Amino acid sequence: MKRAMPGVYDRLEASLLEMAREVGRPKAIVMVTGHWEEDAFTVGSGAAPGMIYDYSGFPEHTYSIQYPAAGSPEVARKVKELLKASGLAAREDETRGFDHGTFVPLMVAYPDADVPVVQLSIRRDYAVAAHLTAGRAIAPLRGEDVLIIGSGLSYHNLRQFGPAARVPSHEFDGWLSEAVCGSAGDERAEKLMKWEQAPSARKAHPREDHLLPLMVAAGAAWHDAAARVYHQDEFFGGIAASSFRFGDTRRA
Q1: Which of 41, 63, 123, 229 sits between 20 and 30 A of 129, alpha carbons compared?
Q2: pLDDT tens sequence across 114-124
Q3: 10-246 under CATH 3.40.830.10, yes or no
Q4: 209 in helix, strand or coil?
């Protein structure tokens, strides 16, 4: 894959590579992607997912990218069963391909595409409590060597990028970092439930599609401490952006 805008993504790339180094090669990855919305939580269950180029206006080569990781119908079925056991409606989709919320970070972290990947949608009603519950539901997979990743962006206001995003993104990022890393369990969940009350919340997320994958990850790591593993103050000319890791992923 050709590199666009060299330097812009260096820190993010380094954090993804560090994640893969610390985690190693898991049995599978469950990727909660902010680019897939359904009425009920939906799990990609195809054995060989295709590609979805869900963007426009990008260079021609970005529409021929391939990330040939296998799916895992077995893990997908477990995800669905765990969600349903927690009282959440859930279904499978055998035809869903990898969207860019999945294949872009994984092309960096696992470029050999040698780890099976299962996508999980967010829910279209954006109910925070439901996404936290979904995370708690699938948490047992972590004990089966399955890595759970929430793929979104901590600031996602496409109409306010660049210098105009500086103040709202920094205000919201400061609150989010404290909420995620400064507490755990019920206390953290209560803060995340009230995210709309955070400084510049709706300026940072006019729609919370890119925030909800974090809620699922936080739910899956309910009692675990979190650390900010990526942060940038000048992303795209002034945006503050962060990523977080829950628990200790390092292996002996």
Answers
A1: 229
A2: 999 999 999 99
A3: yes
A4: helix
